[in-house]
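Dear H.,

Thanks for agreeing to be a second pair of eyes. The structure we're designing against is below in token form, covering all 304 positions.
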């Protein structure tokens, strides 16, 4: 079995999630009675860091939190999950927040960036050695675009692999697409980035780079020879919040552990399928032990 941990650095958002569940969606101007309310840890950066750490990755977080109780709670959460917080600093504003409604087996989210907007390119300069000495850097799009572009360019010039999850959806400079090692949009993000192309055409243009996640339809990519669909695992979801973040964190662990891309995507699909069967973005994320106990876990994935 592979026992050597590979270093993963996550550059991204840290949010407190305020989650309401209800039987149905409220219409504009309508008030309905919800079923429950919880405060949980979130943000795509924080989520992906926790997902990778729970699966055995050696993870360091780079991000910003505010001067409030939510910041202290989140820092403790990182430490409890063995995520190093060398790159997390407090700034004079509120910690990022997300307001999530879960209804009818889906969710809608409003994000308020807060401290996440304070992670600027010049701040990354003090973490250059950290970036150079890791095996993979994960990024998302809940931090300033200039910061993402800086990190991708820096890593490209220094031979460090990067995985960009382009969420929330927005246009991305061609230079970023060219320089990033792995690009993981979902259907909505893909449609914005490649409006005139089919999945097959775009994946063929970016073989072994473009990985499109399709929810219950699995994920697709081109292996350099043909278009491949890696099927999802059939489950009855309870809460889909964080499923994509689970996929990306798991994929980072798989890649840095030496799996080929198709095997890594299957591993990530299994992690996502487990995550949606529990409540909360991070609460549902599986540990490596939970993965290995699942009947669909493949022994040849060789993770320990």
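And this is the sequence the design step returned. I haven't edited it by hand at all.
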């Amino acid at each position: 079995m592979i026992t050597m941990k590979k270093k993963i650095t996550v550059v991204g958002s840290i949010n407190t999630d305020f989650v309401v569940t209800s039987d149905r969606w409220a219409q504009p101007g309508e008030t309905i009675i919800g079923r429950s309310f919880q405060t949980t840890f979130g943000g795509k950066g924080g989520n992906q860091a926790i997902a990778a750490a729970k699966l055995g990755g050696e993870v360091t977080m780079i991000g910003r939190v505010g001067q409030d109780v939510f910041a202290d709670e989140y820092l403790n959460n990182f430490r409890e999950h063995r995520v190093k917080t060398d790159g997390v600093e407090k700034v004079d504003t509120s910690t990022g927040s997300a307001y999530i409604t879960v209804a009818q087996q889906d969710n809608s989210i409003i994000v308020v960036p807060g401290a996440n907007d304070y992670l600027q390119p010049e701040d990354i300069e003090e973490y250059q050695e950290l970036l150079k000495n890791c095996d993979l850097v994960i990024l998302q799009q809940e931090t300033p675009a200039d910061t993402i572009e800086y990190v991708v360019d820096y890593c490209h010039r220094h031979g460090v692999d990067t995985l960009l999850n382009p969420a929330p959806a927005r246009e991305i400079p061609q230079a970023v697409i060219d320089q990033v090692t792995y690009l993981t949009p979902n259907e909505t993000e893909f449609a914005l980035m490649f409006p005139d192309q089919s999945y097959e055409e775009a994946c063929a243009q970016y073989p072994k780079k473009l990985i499109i996640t399709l929810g219950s339809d699995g994920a697709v990519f081109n292996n350099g020879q043909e278009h491949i669909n890696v099927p999802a695992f059939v489950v009855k979801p309870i809460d889909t919040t964080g499923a994509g973040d689970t996929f990306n964190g798991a994929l980072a662990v798989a890649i840095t552990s030496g799996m080929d891309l198709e095997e890594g995507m299957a591993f990530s699909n299994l992690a996502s399928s487990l995550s949606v069967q529990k409540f909360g973005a991070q609460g549902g994320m599986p540990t490596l032990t939970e993965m290995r106990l699942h009947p669909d876990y493949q022994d040849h994935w060789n993770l320990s």
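Two observations from my side: Residues 261-275 form the longest helix (15 residues). The first strand starts at residue 7 and ends at 11.

Warmly,
E.
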